[in-house]
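User: Continuing from earlier, I have the next pair ready.

Assistant: Great, send them over.

User: Here they are, in order.

Assistant: Folding the first of the pair now:
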Amino acid sequence: MRNPRTIPVTSSTPSPIAILALLLILAGCQRGPALASCEEATTPRLVIDRCFGGEAVAENFIGDIACFPFGPAETMKGIWRVSKDRSAFRLASDPDVRQADMWLETADVPAVAQKAALGDRERRFAVELVARPSLCPGFFGHDGTLPREIVVERFTFTRPVGT
């Protein structure tokens, strides 16, 4: 007896690999041209075409990594300030206190920081992490207030600092 959950493969049934390739091609066609420079990354029309599929609607946004130029992952150490509306990171090696913070984007907030991220008071953490830094200035984070962003691949160390 034939398993009703399987699809019989015939010469007219495309392979799963062919279907995946077609979907990737179609997804790529829906985006605008790649942002080739930092100047293009701040040109509103190009950002709307590339990052929103031509219409500036939040639901259309493809995500920072797909939209803006980012460097390869690197290990970083610093201080992370986190609250409901803030996720700011400053490198430990940055002696210039006037240097702007970077928005820290992470899909997996460490358990020790979850209360702050969900609306409890702001907290600070000494962190070591592996992240991809933005290569160009932009408008990252809550309300686009920070000029740089890092996208965390993983935290290797997170320790609360201060009270």
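And the other member of the pair:
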Amino acid sequence: MRKSVCIGIAAAGLLVLAPFALMVYGSNSPVFLTVIGSTPSGMVDDNGQEFQVLTVRINNRDSGRLTLAEDGICAEAKVSGYWVGAQDLSTVLDVGTYRDLLVLVPYNSEGCRLAIEYLPEPLNLKAMRMCGRLGLWRLAWWRTLATHCFPVGWLEPLRSDYVGTSPHWKQVRPEVSCRVASTNTGQAPGF
């Protein structure tokens, strides 16, 4: 009898702790890339071939928002088996569910990779965002607790709340083929 009670308590504890462990640790690489569009740029190189503008979707596997360094994305294109510099034409500072980035690549590019410096969402901001999504702010006792425990503007934290005073940026280098993938998500960008 005691053995089955202990096993039941241990199983219940694991069920309670597993979502928090996934929220804290997440996956090894929280970012994966998808090419969703390719258009001619109107610019021609020295050989007379036109550059392409790729629309690369940065997808976030993590449960929270990723904050990117201001100069934290470096694009490269694979041409004839070699990686050459490419130019990112847009700025992405954070990624919710996904964000689109424009990258200028040579015409005959086989693939594209991005060197990304990022910070995962801090645990306290994940908890505050989760409470906001649950609608706890509508309850009077929760508003009283939140005004005493959480900082001002906790539902819409600033970039400095994510970055902090001395960030330790993590780095990842995901790659993607330059072939356009068919994506029909039907959802708004994860801003």
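Worth noting for the second one:
The beta strands are 31-44, 50-60, 66-79, 82-85, 87-88, 94-95, 98-105, 111-119, 170-172, 175-177. The helical segments are 2-25, 123-134, 140-149, 159-163.
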